[in-house]
Design goal:
- The chain is of the alpha+beta class.
- β1 and β2 form a beta hairpin.
- Mean pLDDT is 77; it is low at 126-170, 172-208 and 454-471.
Length: 681
């Protein structure tokens, strides 16, 4: 009787999981006519004795098309060294979701002409001594957690029916049946659906399986030392390389990582030989089923920042199934707004969701401990307190591989630091990040960040432990210089003043706007081919003009009664009441009218919404100001989109009161009048 891997298709490819080693039957097969590539393409309908799978695709230039009713062996563990890897592809039709299985190799177990029928699962024969209305056989039902492929049938021993009369003999018979039918856990394969001849994984795990139908028995948050057996479905993060430790108390190897599910996080550690096994069995940012780990209390929270009361230990009994391709485990985040990081103590860890505002260059240097290190600093921003920002330092491979400028990222386990009284974040030796995962907070920041200009290097607000105001209060240019020169950091505020000079040259630049909706917006240069462009950030060439757009790059001098400063403005629609395309067209049509339009926007009292910080230029500090929006004053109270003039006057009155308080005088005593007598505010 030919045996199939019963239910194997249902538990692997139909769930989006690559099979390890399964035996199935070909119900129908058909060659697909195509001229693409050297490989022939065949569509197969596969059968595992219970379920039909219609989306199998064989790609091969050497293997023939298997006949109808043929029995074949497929899976990642059956591939020869020179064969391509199999793949799973997700297919969506309306609300229905399914998977296609593409493979390049199979082993013919039995030709279809020999089988010549569609196989079905054999029924278990009635055991000796189990007559109609008689006693049940002396055996136990199969374990539901055991792989279901080709479950062995239990044969009663000679004299078993007679032994039913004796209790002790019954127990011995049951024990013998159990030992024959169900091997000890150490001999069982904990991998995915396999055939009967598959050997267990020597490294404590299996590749690409789903645990043979095994599901998680507990959540991470529920793990405690009183649990006897448990299986966790988790996602791996913060896994680093093996460290070698040598001191007076201990010498050996150690490795650790964090396991996460929707309930929380827990750390798992391994030592010496088991450290090598853990390192080979699991990878960062992938999901697994893990069982057989030990549980112990957390000894030192300095080396375990998960917040869990217990941690796991990798033992010789630990088994891993995966990585799981379908239904990846989502990371459990507990986000802290950037504006609130100033309240966290140094060396604490936190989760952050933020927009990558600016990416620095990769820096390589040698530390005092004579180690070669690599780091990259990036500026993160979010919408807390009207807009806040902070510097994140990435280390080692994370710094080298970071290429997610102008994206929203989520940080897991970022470490809080402090330098010159300013808080910062670091990640690389610990922590992990994702780029725009499916999360409500990510969606909010994607929408918020779309309103920011991508080339703006100035972060939208300041953040330091001095709690400088992140709100858009009125200030003067000189106050802005003095405050930031004393405390560094960054600030977002409003200025009341005039644009005394606007440069009309280099007012525009052409930015890359990819058709797939991704955010680039970097300046493109003309290609050697006429009418095409190149993007230095994306590395793309021959970009058509339709995939670019004109953006503003305005340089203007803003002045108030205290001082003046040159500023940059990248979204100048509120200044000129025209977008960049319209202004560029006006320049090409009538240069005089273009110059007049620019000069008409100078020497008008306006409110400037700005963000500012101190930068070093030629070894000297300099105030860098980015103008985000300008508004004229609403003198009549009926003009929409303008700032009420009373807001400006109230600010000026507050300044007068502050000066009078310093001088020890009051105008109402000196002059005999109050503000309310002169104006209605």
């Amino acid at each position: 009787m030919y045996e199939l891997s019963w239910d194997s298709l249902k538990t692997t490819v139909m769930k989006g999981i690559l099979p390890l080693d399964i035996t199935v039957q070909v119900i129908t097969s058909k060659k697909i006519s195509t001229d693409e590539g050297p490989e022939s393409r065949y569509r197969l309908m596969l059968w595992d004795g219970d379920t039909v799978f219609k989306n199998a695709l064989l790609l091969s230039s050497t293997l023939p098309l298997p006949d109808k009713h043929s029995i074949i062996r497929i899976g990642t563990d059956t591939l020869p060294a020179d064969s391509k890897e199999s793949a799973i592809r997700k297919m969506t039709k309306g609300d229905q979701e399914s998977f296609a299985y593409m493979f390049h190799h199979y082993e013919l177990v039995k030709e279809g002409s020999t089988v010549n029928t569609k196989l079905t699962r054999p029924t278990t024969p009635r055991l000796q001594g189990q007559g109609k209305g008689g006693n049940p056989p002396l055996s136990t039902p199969p374990n539901s957690g055991r792989p279901t492929d080709a479950a062995p049938q239990i044969r009663p021993r000679l004299g078993q029916a007679a032994a039913a009369a004796s209790g002790s003999t019954n127990r011995e018979a049951v024990k013998r049946n159990l030992e024959e039918s169900f091997p000890s856990p150490k001999r069982q394969n904990t991998g995915g659906a396999t055939n009967n001849n598959t050997a267990p994984d020597r490294k404590g795990g299996s590749r690409g399986g789903d645990g043979g139908g095994v599901e998680a028995t507990h959540k991470v948050a529920a793990v405690n030392p009183h649990m006897n057996r448990f299986t966790l479905k988790v996602r791996v993060s913060q896994k680093r390389g093996i460290r070698e430790i040598s001191n007076s108390r201990w010498q050996g190897k150690v490795i650790s990582c964090v396991l996460s599910d929707s309930s929380g996080d827990i750390q798992i550690s391994a030592f010496n030989t088991e450290a090598e096994t853990l390192n080979e069995s699991i990878e960062n940012d992938k999901s697994y089923l893990i069982t057989g780990a030990s549980v112990k209390p957390v000894r030192d929270t300095r080396y375990n920042t998960t917040g869990h009361n217990f941690e796991l230990g990798w033992t010789v009994q630990t088994r891993v199934t995966g990585p799981l391709i379908a239904e990846r485990v989502g990371v459990n985040y507990n986000f802290t707004n950037i504006a609130n990081i100033k309240d966290l103590a140094a060396d604490k860890s936190c989760d952050v969701c933020a927009f990558v505002q600016e990416t620095g260059d990769l820096v390589e240097f040698r530390s005092r401990a004579d180690r070669d290190l690599k780091k990259r600093e990036i500026t993160l921003a979010d919408d807390s307190d009207g807009g806040s920002s902070i510097t994140l330092t990435l280390w080692d491979k994370m710094a080298v591989n970071f290429k997610d400028q102008s994206k929203v990222i989520t940080l897991k386990g970022a470490k809080v630091g402090e330098w010159n009284n300013v808080k910062n974040l670091s990640m690389g030796f610990t922590g992990s990040y994702e780029v725009e995962p499916d999360h409500p907070r990510v969606h909010d920041l994607v929408e918020w960040s779309s309103q920011l200009h991508p080339t703006q290097s100035q972060a939208p607000s300041q953040l330091n432990n001095l709690s400088l105001s992140g709100s858009e209060d009125f200030t003067t240019i000189q106050e802005l210089k003095d405050e930031l020169m004393a405390h560094k950091g960054e600030k977002r505020c409003r200025l009341f003043g005039y644009a005394v000079k606007i440069n009309s040259e280099n007012l525009f630049y052409r930015a890359h706007t990819p058709p797939d909706g991704s955010r680039c917006w970097k300046k493109v240069s003309e290609s050697s081919k006429k009418g095409l462009y190149e993007c230095g950030k994306c590395g793309k060439r021959n970009i058509p003009k339709c995939d670019t757009t004109l953006k503003y790059n305005v340089r203007l001098n803003v002045a108030d009664f205290s001082s003046n400063n040159w500023c940059n403005m990248f979204d100048a629609v509120s200044l000129f009441n025209k977008d960049a395309e319209e202004m560029h067209e006006l320049m090409n049509q009538d240069i005089d009218l273009y110059e007049k339009q620019i000069s008409s926007r100078t020497m008008i009292p306006m409110v400037f919404k700005v963000s500012a910080k101190i930068e070093t230029y030629n070894d000297s500090p300099r105030l860098k100001v980015i103008v985000h929006e300008v508004n004229e004053l609403n003198w009549t109270g009926r003009e929409e989109g303008k700032v009420d003039w009373k807001d400006v006057v109230r600010h000026q009155i507050a300044e007068v009161h502050a000066i009078e308080s310093q001088l020890g005088v009051a105008h109402d005593i000196e002059v005999g009048t109050t503000w309310g007598d002169s104006i209605d505010i």
